[in-house]
Design goal:
This protein has helices at 3-6, 23-33, 48-51, 66-73, 97-102, 152-155, 159-166, 176-184, 209-222, and strands at 14-19, 38-42, 45-47, 57-59, 75-79, 89-91, 109-113, 122-123, 138-144, 156-157, 198-204, 228-234, 242-247. The chain is an alpha/beta fold. The protein has one domain (3-47, 94-247): Rossmann fold, CATH 3.40.50. α8 (176-184) crosses α9 (209-222).
């Protein structure tokens, strides 16, 4: 099963990725799985090193080249104007841009990295986060299942906020119940999701039987919460990325 099938993605979708580490891998994986033309972008910032994973890329300053890039490569990453890029990161676009890109006749889907996590497997959003386009049709909350394996202080971006939402201390490990609470809280994983958007969760780094068992237990709990329609277990660095799909009955 491809990532596109696992997340039930169709033409005309605007997909926003939030949460912990793995968002960029999922974004590029979705682009590789989509059979037509796809635009990738970010409303936050992207490490320059990650841009090498894109089939092609343009800045807003040369957005006129997008059509040519899509014709040649089918997939193109759109980032902010080159003159405001940092040394190791590139800036993103404003939250109104993804819908403008999707409105183009030569674009079939748009995938947006709408959150930052400093490559930690789990996070809680700050007041200014995430930056989700209001036209989002599918929101995917990403988390590494290795977030259960070490203390919150070591695995979380903004650990104090994670502790505030879960009631745990930074020295404690997240439990499956606490991770479920974090991902389904309106101030946690669901923060900023537009009304009407479908919600899915990506449990990543399913690389061993114990991790698969832990992820399955979390998935069962997640599907008890009304906004969550499906949970996809992945190993995004592996040749076969999709490990298992849980869908609400």
């Amino acid at each position: 099963m491809s990532l596109i099938e696992a997340f039930d993605i169709h033409r005309g979708e605007l997909i926003s990725l939030v949460g912990g580490g793995g968002k960029s891998s999922l974004m590029f994986g979705l682009a590789q799985s989509w059979p037509g033309r796809v635009v990738l972008t970010t409303t936050t910032r992207l490490f320059r090193a990650q841009m090498g994973r894109a089939q092609s890329w343009v800045t807003l300053k040369n957005i006129g080249q997008l059509g040519e890039k899509l014709t040649r490569h089918c997939s193109c990453l759109v980032v902010g104007p080159a003159d405001v890029h940092e040394r190791d990161k590139v800036t993103g676009v404003s939250a109104d841009w993804p819908a403008r890109l999707l409105a183009r006749p030569d674009v079939e889907i748009v995938v947006v990295e709408a959150d930052g996590s400093r490559r930690r497997p789990v996070k809680a959003p700050a007041e200014h986060e995430p930056m989700i386009p209001p036209e989002t049709t599918l929101g995917i909350i990403v988390v590494g299942i290795d977030a259960l394996e070490r203390p919150i202080a070591e695995v979380a971006h903004r650990p104090q906020l994670v502790c505030g939402l879960t009631g745990l201390s930074p020295e404690q490990n997240l439990t499956p119940a606490a991770l479920t609470k974090l991902l389904t809280d309106q101030n946690g994983g669901l923060k900023g999701m537009p009304p009407g958007a479908r919600i899915a969760i990506c449990l990543n780094k399913i690389e061993t039987p114990p991790r698969a068992a832990a992820a399955a237990a979390v998935a069962d709990q997640l599907l008890l919460h009304e906004p969550i329609e499906r949970v996809v277990l992945t190993s995004l660095q592996a040749e076969i990325a999709v490990r298992r799909v849980f869908v609400k009955p």
